[in-house]
Amino acid sequence: MDDYALVLNAGSSSLKFCVFQRPDSEKWRLAARGQIEGIGTSPRLSAKGPDGEKLVDEKLSDSIRTGQDAIETLAVWLRSKYAGARVLGVGHRVVHGGPNFDRPTIVSDEVLAELNKLIPLAPLHQPYNLAAIEAVAERLPGVPQVACFDTSFHRGHAPVAELVPLPRELCKSGVARYGFHGISYEYIASVLPQVAPEIATGRVIVAHLGSGASLCALKDGKSVDTTMGFTAVEGLCMGTRPGSIDPGVVLFLFQTLGLSVKEVEAILYKKSGLLAISEISNDMRDLLGRTEPEAILAVDYFVYRTAKEIGALAAVLGGLDALVFTAGIGENSAEVRQRICEASAWLGIELNEEANAGKATRISNAESKVSVWVIPTNEELMIARHTGDLLGIRNAVAGASRP
Fold first, then answer.
1. Which helix (H) or strand (E) holds 203?
2. What is residue 11's DSSP assignment?
3. Among the listed residues 228, 230, 190, 229, the one whose alpha carbon sits nearest the alpha carbon of residue 212
């Protein structure tokens, strides 16, 4: 195998990875996609090749309890699978870039120190993203790493879209609406000219619907507004996050119920959303089709909030030309797509039920005023592109290392 770049997306209990072969043209070649899941409980390594063929699927030792353990395990597998190949660079998804990082950045000690300061703004993701960077630096000290931020695609919004209307002195400390899922939205914007050229320069709302969920308003392929803000809690109802709620509720939790900071943080990030409403599951796949009133209400609320925010972003755009669904729920749930489109029919959406059920790319009728699309996202490829561009991987061999 040629030399390769590695893309990592580290979470609290999983390490997702992609291996991309060094390009000899403008296109990266995917060699493997996989994950180590169940870190700390029942760890398992699985990976597939570019055509979906199984490369590995095995239970791992229970001693793999941390992200660093997972990195070490991945390195051993890579060394056995791609003997003699070198890692030219490692790209990472980092959720929060704060006010100072508006584009992908080569990681240095100084950059890492700044990103650690942002952990309170993304406690579900940032600590694990950065721990993976530190583990790779320890395991492969000569290999350059690139941090790609979920916030950077949204930087440059109009001041009214970024503003948090609090006292100016507080805002100077970095309080602003940053937005998230930017790597996903950037990928969708990058493929629209090929997949759906008729809408690529138009007014488009992209619905990234998964366990974490948000919407992004695109105009001419650029983000103009999004539903998430200072943190990844704002906006839509999510798997375990509530989305937008009255800030007075948070004050009530502190002042009247006497909850601690850690207790409130756990409620907002881990105990709310679909899980709280249903008291059954945070996974839309578990809730769809169930007959319990709480499960039905959870799905209803998810659809309601999404349709409501679509209307708000359509107002920001001054009209709407297209709606694009992506991510886990958006790509795979025909029922949720149908219900959101029905709730948004007033915008001029006419869904083609057969196309929607048949996993077509365009799922609206030809006469629909607003076209509707399903486009799979590929955050890992976007990270690989940025990593290659920043490190000059097409021509570089210096600094490469074997895993």
1. strand 203-209
2. -
3. 228
Q: DSSP 3-state assignment of 303?
A: helix
Measured in whole angstroms, the distance separating CA 9 from the mean position of its chain's CA atoms is 9
Q: How far apart are CA 31 and CA 199, in angstroms?
A: 31
Which residue is listed with tokens 């409501």? 308
Q: How far apart are CA 155 and CA 159, in angstroms?
A: 10
DSSP label of 198? T
Compute the distance between CA of residue 198 and CA of residue 68 in angstroms, rounded to an integer: 46
**Is the pTM higher than 0.85?**
yes
Task: Report how far residue 373's alpha carbon sits from residue 380's, in angstroms, rounded to the nearest whole number.
Answer: 21
For residue range 171-228, list pLDDT tens digits in order: 998 899 999 999 999 999 999 999 999 999 999 999 999 999 999 999 999 999 999 9
Using left for φ > 0, alpha for ψ between -120 and 50, and beta otherwise, residue 257 falls in: alpha
The residues, ordered by sequence, that sit 6+ positions from 217 with a Cβ below 8 Å of its Cβ are 203, 204, 205, 223, 224, 225, 226, 313, 316, 317
State how far the alpha carbon of 230 is from the alpha carbons of 143, 156, 337, 374, in Å.
32, 15, 27, 28
What tens digit of pLDDT does each residue of 301-344 get? 999 999 999 999 999 999 999 999 999 999 999 999 999 999 99
| pLDDT higher than threshold 50 for residue 397 | no
Active site residue 150: yes
* Confidence (pLDDT) at 11: 84
Q: How do residues 5-35 score in pLDDT, each as one tens digit? A: 899 998 878 889 999 886 665 577 889 999 9
Sheet holding 105-106, edge to edge: 54-59, 44-48, 29-37, 14-21, 4-10, 87-94, 145-149, 105-106
Q: Using an 8 Å Cβ cutoff, are 108 and 25 in contact?
A: no
Q: Sketch out the chain's domains with CATH numbers.
A: 4-173+380-391 (3.30.420.40), 198-374 (3.30.420.40)
Q: What residues are paired with 105 via a beta bridge?
A: 147
For the CA atoms of the chain, what is the radius of gyration?
21
Catalytic residue among 3, 62, 109, 150: 150
339-383 tens-digit pLDDT = 999 999 999 999 999 999 998 999 999 999 999 999 999 999 899
